[in-house]
Design goal:
Blueprint (H helix, E strand, L loop, with lengths): L9 E4 L10 H4 L3 E4 L7 H8 L5 E4 L7 H5 L6 E4 L9 H6 L3 E3 L6 H17 L1 H9 L2 H5 L14 E4 L3 H11 L5 E4 L10 E2 L3 H6 L3 E4 L13 H7 L4 E4 L8 H9 L5 E4 L18 E3 L8 H19 L13
Parallel strand pairs: 1-2, 1-3, 3-4, 4-5, 6-7, 6-9, 7-8, 9-10, 10-11, 11-12
Helix pairs in contact: 5-8
């Protein structure tokens, strides 16, 4: 016997969905409270319609603070569509007994592909060559400036050897790249060289790839000294979070030629991108879409629903956020 709509568990969604659709698959299983569709200010909407909502589905655009949690007395689970958790006050959720689940490893393969693609693009100047042809400069100016040799043999340092970082490393092995890494702890299960700090990692890398999460410890972790250690022939790729790099220092290093180039999918103040980067041919820019493919969104939908169904069935969550996060 099918449950009537008013019998379905309430699922609160605060911000509009963007690329990820909170549509039919969720509406078939939950009573979805779409706060962004209401003309009411958010506190009034929550007070009037979400006091009994036990579940919140959110993206990184929703800041889950103690203040927001105060407005949701019945909340018992938060499921976020991102792997990163810097938008959620996780300790406060734990204090209140609110479970948290994230996207787990759903995006790992796609982000790893994008990271390697950005590195190839910067090295071989693929996007710059495309602009050169489209602007008619091939016929007008002749030969295009040379790029660098491909990834083969390049020393690559990975910051954050979690699920994404490991997938990046596996791809780079096919290019014969010596891989080293920095993370909170040394990983006994891998043979890659471990550096306890990012300065030493950068000093021993031709390419530095940022794959870690944004935390208070990693904010602006990549600053002037690390960029200088990477050096004039060095390339930095960021598929983590923009604020892991001190963006002002990165811009200066690129403009002054203190590093060779950069591939950036994330920025410190999205969607705003530093004006200086827009005219640089040694920089490849992407609008925070490394994780997003049709296939990953389908997998994400299934995972989000599976986490919610597990919660409402008093079963273990599929991708619970652990204490170490």
């Amino acid at each position: 016997m099918k449950m009537r709509r008013h019998d379905l568990p309430q699922l609160l969604v605060i911000n509009p969905p963007g690329l990820f659709d909170y549509g039919d698959p969720f509406a078939a299983k939950f009573t979805v409270l779409r706060a962004w569709e209401s003309p009411l200010p958010l506190p009034r909407f929550l007070s009037a319609h979400a006091q009994s909502a036990p579940a919140l589905l959110c993206s990184a655009a929703t800041r889950v603070t103690a203040g927001l949690l105060d407005l949701l007395p019945s909340l018992r689970i938060i499921v976020t569509t991102s792997a990163g958790l810097n938008h959620i006050d996780v300790p406060e959720c734990r204090r209140r007994g609110i479970a948290v689940a994230n996207a787990g490893e759903v995006f790992s393969d796609d982000v790893a592909d994008a990271a390697v693609g950005l590195a190839l693009d910067v090295l071989r100047r693929v996007s710059a060559a495309d602009r050169f042809v489209r602007r008619g400069l091939w016929a007008k100016d002749g030969d295009f400036a040379l790029g660098s040799k491909q990834l083969v043999g390049k020393r690559v340092g990975i910051v954050g050897l979690g699920s994404i970082g490991l997938q990046v490393a596996k791809r780079l092995e096919a290019f014969g790249c010596p891989v080293s890494y920095n993370s909170r702890t040394k990983k006994p299960s891998v043979s890659y060289t471990f550096y306890a700090n990012v300065y030493e990692l950068a000093a021993n890398s031709d390419i530095l790839i940022i794959c870690c999460a944004l935390t208070e410890q990693t904010r602006h972790m990549i600053g002037k000294s690390v960029l200088l250690a990477l050096g004039k022939d060095g390339i930095i790729i960021n598929v983590g979070r923009g604020a892991i790099i001190d963006e002002k220092e990165l811009v200066q290093s690129l403009v002054w030629g203190e590093i060779r180039g950069s591939g950036l999918d994330v920025f410190e103040n999205e969607p705003n991108v530093p004006e200086e980067l827009l005219s640089l041919d040694n920089v490849v820019l992407s609008p925070h879409v490394a994780a997003f493919t049709e296939e990953s969104f389908q997998d994400l939908t299934e995972l989000m629903i599976a986490n919610l169904e597990a919660f409402f069935s008093n079963k273990p969550l599929i991708t619970p956020v652990m204490d170490k996060q």
